[in-house]
Design brief:
By secondary structure, the chain is α/β, with parallel strands linked by helices. The protein is built from 9 helices and 18 strands. The chain binds zinc ion (ZN) (2 copies).
Length: about 350
Amino acid sequence: MQWLVDIGYVQPERLPPRRTRVVHADASVVPDAFAGRVPEFAARAIREGLRKGPVLVQVASPGYAPVAVCAECGELARCTACAGPIGFRSAGRAACRWCGEQGAGWRCRHCGGRGLEQRGMGSQRTAEQFERQFTGARVVLSDGEHPHERIDSRPALVVATRGAEPIAAGGYRAVVLLDAERLLGIESLRAGEDCMRWWQNAAALAAPDGVCVVASGGGPVVRAFVTGRIEEWLRDELRDRHALRYPPAVRVASVTGGPAEVDRALGALRGPGGAELAGVDVLGPVPVLRRDVPPGLVRAIVRFDYAHGAEVAKRLRGALVADAAGASSRAAGRRPGRARPEALRLRFDDRGVFDGHLGA
Ligand SMILES: [Zn+2]
Ligand SMILES: [Zn+2]
C-alpha cells in the first residue's frame, strides 16, 4: 500500500488517530526482570488489568512447545521420515510438524540419542504456566484448535496465537505481545510487515484507555510499532527493496520443473547473443527441497521490472506451451497417464517465493 501511495496510485487519508498506548518492556535491557514467561513489568500490567477486565496475551506458536532438540547433543530434532521439524503438541507428545509422524521411535542423526527436549513456549504451555503464576485468574486459551470468537467483560487472562484473538466486550484492559524475536525471525521477506499487522490488530482490541505492552524484542520494526512512526519504517523498507530488487519494487515469477525444462524456459528470456532482457534477472535455479515437491526438481526465480511484465509473461507462457507440446509428442503412442513431475510450472507474484519452509 505504501508503494501505491509512493507512485501516486492512491491518496493517503489520515483518519483521526485512535491509537492504543504502547509501552516497551525491553527484555534485552533487564533480562533478570523475567519471572517465568513474561517480564516483571508485563506481569504487573497483567495483574492490574485483571482487576478490571479481560487481558490478552499474544504468543507466536500454538501447541505446547514449538521446537524439539536432541537431549544429548542439542541439535534441532528432525523427523526420521521426512526431515521436517519436530514439535510438542501437548506435554510429552512429540510429532513431526510436517507429516505428523510420532516422535516415539525418534533417533538423533548426529549422535544417535533417543531423548527429545522441549524448547520454546507454545500457547498451551504458556496458559499452563499462567495458571500457576496468576493464581485464581480465569485462563482462556484461543488458538487454531480451540478458537474463541468473543469473550465477555469479566476478568480473564486470554492466551491467543496471532489471528485467533477473541474480541472482548468493551475491549481488553491490557494487550501483551510476546515472542517478537521469534515472529521477526520467520524466514520470510514479509516477516516485518506481517508482524506489524499482527501487532496492530491485537493492539486495536484494547479498550480506549487500555495499554499494549511489547514484552520482548528490539530493532526497527519493534521501534516503529512502539513509537507509532510506521510510515517512516514502511518507506525505509521500500527503499531497501528497491536497492535489493525485491517485491514490491519488482515483480517475480517462479519457474519450477526438471533441470532441462527450467533451463529451456530461462533460455526463452534471453535475447540474441544469450544476454538476458533488460530489466530481467534470474536467481537460481536451485534444487527444490520441499515435502510437497518430488525430489530432483529445480526452481528459478525471475525478477523483472513492471514495464517488462507483458513481455516476460509472453515468453514464459510460450515456454510452458512448448514444454507441454514437446512432452506430448515424445509420449505419442503412450496412453495419457499421470502428469510428468518434471513438467514446467509457472507462478507469477507468488508471495511465498522468498520464504523459508520452517515457518513459525
Ligand atoms: Zn543428538
Ligand atoms: Zn515428518
